[in-house]
Each structure stands twice: as structure tokens, then as C-alpha cells.
Amino acid sequence: xxxxxxxxxxxxxxxxxxxAGWLRRDIESxxxxxxxxxxxxxPEILVAADAPDRHVRDAVRMHLTTLTRCFTPEEPDSEIxxxxxxxxxxxxxxxxxxxxxxxxxxxxETLHAALWQHLVTALHTADPRxxxxxxxAVMEWAAARLFAYFRTASERTASLYGTELALLERRATSRRxxxxxxxxxGTVDPAAAQRELGYDxxxxxxxxxxxxDRGSGPDRLDGAVRTVVExxxxxxxxxxxxxxRSVHGWLVCHGEGWRELAARRSLPPGVxxxxxxxxxxxxxxxxxxxxxxxxxxVADALGSAGTVLFDDxxxxxxxxxxxxxxxAFVARTLGRLAAxxxxxxxxxxxxxxxxxxxxxxTRTARRLHVHPNTVVKRMERIESLLGRPVDPAxxxxxxxxELSTMVAxxxxxxxxxxxxxxxxxxxxPVR
Length: 431
Description:
CdaR_GGDEF, Alpha-Beta Plaits, CdaR-like_regulators, 61% helix, PucR family transcriptional regulator
């Protein structure tokens, strides 16, 4: 920088020295107009219960004092050090939800602009008045340092604010999870939990469990759950994290319209949602959750994708509560069709679709992508193996056919993977 005799007489031999001297000398006269400009442009900054103007004034003074030090380095891009008070003040505002982050960032922009205007005025009214070249040198230095300072202040504030909010959210989530765990396990007072959760336990609930396949990101799960829940427009909602790949939730929905909305809502690949049936009161809160857990268990066993409603799989859920009984029922009802092997598997799939299509060879063939005559021949073979005609209204046959994909076949004896036990209202669903 070019040294100037005029700048030297005004308070320093260099632009940065002139700036530091100006701030030290005029800091008291600058405070009131800067505070007025800030509170006029950003009135939301006045949040203190007692003497809010004084709190803003103290904050502005702190920034001016720090800026005085920032104007003294020899290099305009040297590191800016924020005072520790900024961190404490930012965390306190976030913790008490006193001032939103955009308001804080706007206050920095306002203070930056106001301070710049006062600097320009000072350069034109100083005695002696710096020359045009000297004013340009001071303004060039000031522009670089002011920009660096307020950019650093904004970035630091945004980072601290976000970190504090994330910490608060983790604590709140942990507390919600503890309360829900206690509700499911019967270890907390429902009335006290209801007040703290802000969720009406006496209402008519619909519980759900959402989860992702391994390898799918949790962000996709959160976004999918939010989209589905918003589409249902519940009166109240409550959700807690599960095992890292799942979310457990409850909605207060009136009527039965939620069923159709939930069933037809498309989900991203790898994301699944299981729904319990509607149930009322504190007992219903636990019941619909248990049903959602059961629906998930059945969906996992069947390899189903997307959305599953408990009412659609209730028979399968109840029938598979006892694995050995379910296996025996399937073997007894399906006979040689349950023996396994390529032919048996192909015939079972044909039977399953045939029953779902109420015995229509044409619709069955369309779904299986085969000729209707092929379906007729397969059904003749199925009836031969069963030793009786196939009746689409036969509940036992329909149930056994669906169960056949969930139980061990004779050639898999001793290789059955254990099922995940259903929720009993303990801590299992919310960890």
C-alpha cells in the first residue's frame, strides 16, 4: 500500500491503520446509529425480555471491537477470528428458538451495509480530508476486510446454529423414543406422555412401520415417509426412529380414506411401509403398532415390495404365529404340491394366481404370460395332485397356497431361518 502523509495525520500511516484508528475513536458515536439502522431493518432481532436494545447494542459493540483488530493485519485476506461470545450467543438463540437463522444472517448484511455508509461519510468529512487516491486505498482495504469479516461471521453463525439445532433434535428424538418405548411397554403414565409428546393418545390411531432394504440410504426413507404422511393429511402425527433402517409412526386419521391413499401411493425402490388397522385409545395405540409390525413380518417373508396393509395379510399373519402348525397345515392341505421342485413351484404359482383371479383361465394366463390352454392343463394337473377339484372360494386352500411361500418345505427341513418375533410392546420397536 502507498503511505500517505495525510492519512498519517488523520490517525495512521497506512489505510489499515487509518481504519483501526477511525473505529477506535468513533466507536461510541457509531453505536447508536448502527443499532437504530439494524433494529429498524430487522426488528425481529429485538428478542431479549429485558432491555432488548441494550442487548443489540452490546452485540454491535462486540463486532466493532473485533473489527478494529481485523483492520490491523498487513494482508487483507489474513484469517478472521470470531470472538467466543459469538458462539455462546448463537447457541443460546438456537437453543431457545429466539431468533431464526435467516434473521441473524440478515442482521449481518444490514450491519455491513450501514457500517460501510458511515465509513464513506467519515472519509469525506475527516479533517484533514484524505485525497481521492488515499480514499480509494482505504476503501479498497475496508471492502476486503469487511467482506471477509461478515462472511466469516455468517458462515460461523450458520454452522453453530445448525449444530445446535441438530443437537436439540437428537435430544428431542431420544426423549420421544424413550416415551414411546415406555408407552408400548406400559412403563410410563399415558397422560404425562401425551402432554410431553403433544399427541392425543385417546384418538383413533393408524400405526405404520417404514423400512428400507439394506443398501438403501436413510434419506430416501425419510423423504418417502414425509411424502406419504403429507398425502394422508392426518390431524396429528408421531414418529420415532427404529433400528437405523426403519421408522415407526402413528397418525390420527378420520374415516377410511387413508387406506386407499396409502395403498396407491408409490414408493421409491427399496422403501416399504406396513400399516396397522385403525384402533382407538391407549390400547389402540399399541394394537395398531403391533399390527404394523406383523404386516412387516409377513411382507418380509413373502418378499413383498412397497405398501402392505395388515388387513390384507391378517390371515397369513395369524396363521404363521406358530411355524410348525403352519408348516403342517400347508403340507396337509397341498399334499404333493408342497413337496418342492421346479414343477411343484410352477404349479403353485399358477394355483395362486388362479385363485386370485377367481378361477378365470383367461385372466390367469394374462398374468402368467402363457396361453389359456396351458393354464387349463396345469389346473388339471393340480387337481390330480390334490385329489379334488379346485374351488376359488375354498379359504383353506387359498390360505395354504399363500402360506406355502412362508413356511419350510419338506426338502428344507432343518434349514428354516427363524422369524423375527412380533412386537410385544417392549423396547424392540424403538431403539
